[in-house]
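Regression test attached.
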Amino acid sequence: MTRDINEICRVMCLTAKSAGRIMHGTNPADVGITQKPGTANYVTECDVAVQKFIARELSVFSPEIGFFGEEDTEKGKLISDLAFVVDPIDGTSNFMMGLRLSAVSIALCDVKANRTLAAAVYCPYTDELFWATLGGGAYLNGEPMQVSARDLEHGLAGYGSTPYDRTVADRHMALLSRVYAKCIDVRNLGTAALHLAYVAAGRLCAFYELRLSPWDYAAGALLITEAGGKITNFSGDPLDLSAPDSVMAGNPVAYAELKELIEE
Ligand code: LIP
């Protein structure tokens, strides 16, 4: 790759912030909403507009890098070796309901090597920009960030409820009951990207969700590993950046405890 990773990450951050301002400035009551396949799976006109904005900005800067976004109509496989993997509004349901907790998630992925090279996650409602480069550390609004040292007993555990696939509801609730019994409390913020960013920032000690898509976790996974945490699928393997996967993450102590609960 000819471009410098730090230069690409800088443009990803600028693009994520500009995209976040579009989200923040949009009244959810003013946008059309379409249902996607599955249960409670929606896309708004703002999701589509934000993704078009991001795709345009990034393609002007680096036309040689592929683009794979949640709202692409032709949902082909991730075919480029090097691609931006993008969730324009992670937490679409939160956005729709005016809950003001959603994020723009942009990852630069080496798909052939199945790894993320750079990550930018921005929440316009808190004006918090989380970013990282592979081997370069993780940052929150320019300050280094790292995972906490809290075990489950002394921490908050985040989770996602896999709302688009209710066939796994019983399995999710059984796991949630086991996690809840072990930690201070549980939190479902409705946005995987922010759950993962909050693990990297030390706010949550762990996070899990039975099924997510690459655009939900491609950026957050790098934030966590660069902040000293661990993230895998439920089998303990690296997350698949080309297809949906299960996700479990945490600081090293909490991750190990969560893994035991998942394997029970
Ligand atoms: C959402 C995730 C969330 C998950 C939802 C959905 P979206 O992403 O961030 O963790 O529980 O099912 O996938 O669809 O709002 O971009």
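Expected vs. actual: identical. Residues 70, 87, 90-93, 160-164, 190-192, 209, 216 surround L-MYO-inositol-1-phosphate (CB under 6 Å).
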